[in-house]
Amino acid sequence: MPSGTAEVQVRPGVEDDLKALTALYNHYVRETPITFDTEPFTPEERRPWLLSHPEDGPHRLRVATDADSQEILGYATSSPYRPKPAYGTSVETTVYVAPGAGGRGIGSLLYTSLFDALAGEDLHRAYAGIAQPNEASARLHARFGFRHVGTYREVGRKFGRYWDVAWYEKPL
After folding, report:
1. How is 43-93 classified by DSSP, letter by letter?
2. pTM, full prediction
3. What is the predicted pLDDT for the residue at 97?
C-alpha cells in the first residue's frame, strides 16, 4: 500500500454487505461495458448471487474495506465456470473495485485473499473474461499467473456497440 493510503482489510463477504455490493456492481452495469448486465439490480435481486458464495468451498466472495470507515472498496469472486458437472473443478473469477479506489492495489489484495482461500479446494483451473479494452484488468490477471487463451470477437452488445471479451486461464 502506498504511504498516505488508508489501510485496507479483506474478509469474506456477508449479508450486511449486500446493499453496498449491489451499488458498486450497479455502477459497472450503468457506466461501463465491464459487465454485460444492462439493467441495475435491487439488493433483493442480488441476494441469490451473494448467497451462492459461502465462506467455504470453491465459490467465494472476498470484500475489501477501508479499515477505518468500513466502506467497501471492492470485491472478488470465484463462481461456477459452467453449470455442467464436468466443469466442477473450474471457476470463473472476477474483481470489481469501487470508483475512485483504483490504483491502490485493492485488486491485488482481493485476488491474493481469494486465491489463498481457494488453495485447499479441489480446483484445477480459474478463468477470467475481460471485456476489451481493459489494460488494468489484463495487467492484474497477468500478475496472478493468468495467460491469454483467446478472444471472443463482438460477443456482447451494450451501449449501442459490440464488445470483445478476452479470456484468460490460470492453473490452480
Report:
1. HHHHHHHHHTS-SSSS--EEEEEETTT--EEEEEEEEES-SSGGGTTEEEE
2. 0.93
3. 97
